[in-house]
Amino acid sequence: MTSEEYIRALALAVTRLEDETDRDAKSALFELALRIRALIATLPEGQLERQIVYPKLRERFATELQNTSNRIFAILRSRLVQAEVAATTTAANLFDLPALAPRDLGDILRETRIQTQTLLTLFSPSPGGGLSPFGRQLLRLLDRSVQSRFMQNITTADIADVVIGVRFRKGEQLPVVGKGTVANAWRFRLKGLMAAAFWAMAYNAQQRAAPASTRPISRWRWNAVLDPKTCPVCRPLDGKEAGTPEAFPKGPPPLHPFCRCVLIPIYT
């Protein structure tokens, strides 16, 4: 398998698993948004009254958010094993090796990092049954959008629409995840997390395969997907080479959520 074939095979496997996970997680977030919207719709109309009632509702939000965080983590775990098999098989083909044995799920969760946190830490409730770090991210996005509108002269129904919008079809009111809604921000955050997790796993598979290969690697080349979405950090790194993955200025990819970069080994 050539480096170019490797990139195509890896991208195909990762994209398929990302799409499948996103489809299931999208449903979980949609249902969460509907429940949160219904709770916000119970707020009183007065500005002062809203400020008094909101902290009590926020406790109920936290419960809903943690339940959804647990549900999404279960969805993600089921796909991680599939991703591990796909990534290790692809890496073994690149390095001319027998298929590598997949890691235990616990090892995958502990070793797959999203920036500074492992997946296990990101989805684990805080001591005492509090929100997981992922749940706290969702709550911050909700607070930011809802509380910023408390002092505005708008109705409670309008505030509820910030979480998930509505549209009318043949006189029937239908929920919709539109731009600017909290539900859309939640999904964007989760898509970035998933992309980083799957590509981090691909990198781990490469690192496991490289030492076992009889083909010596002289250096590693940074490969970025160059399109309008490419970030200003990754774009100038495309094509750059280093002796080891850790020798790149900011370390190996992924560098951020939605990072689509990968390192390609260059053989002697």
Describe, in short, the structure shown.
The protein has 268 residues and is mainly alpha-helical. 56% of the residues lie in helices and 11% in strands.
Overall outline: elongated
Strand arrangement within the widest β-sheet reads 6-5-7
Question: How big is the Rg?
Answer: 22 Å
Mean pLDDT: 84
Which sequence of SSEs, written as H and E, runs from N to C?
HHHEEHHHEEHEEE
Estimate nothing, just give the exact number of structural domains. 2
- How much of the residues is beta strand, in percent? 5-15%
- What class, by secondary structure content? mainly alpha
**Biggest sheet character:** 3 strands, antiparallel
Helix content: 55-70%
Low-pLDDT segments, ≥5 res: none
> What's the total helix number?
7
Tally of extended strands?
7
Beginning-to-end CA distance, first to last residue: 16 Å
Walkthrough of the structure:
The chain is mostly helical and 268 residues long. It folds into two domains: 3-213, no CATH class; 216-268, no CATH class. The chain has seven helices and seven strands, in the order αααββαααββαβββ. The strands form three sheets. A three-stranded antiparallel β-sheet has the order 6-5-7, covered by helices on one side. Strands 1-2 form a two-stranded antiparallel ribbon. Helix 1 (3-40) runs antiparallel to helix 2 (47-94). The longest helix is centred in the first third of the chain and has 48 residues, at 47-94. The mean pLDDT is 84.
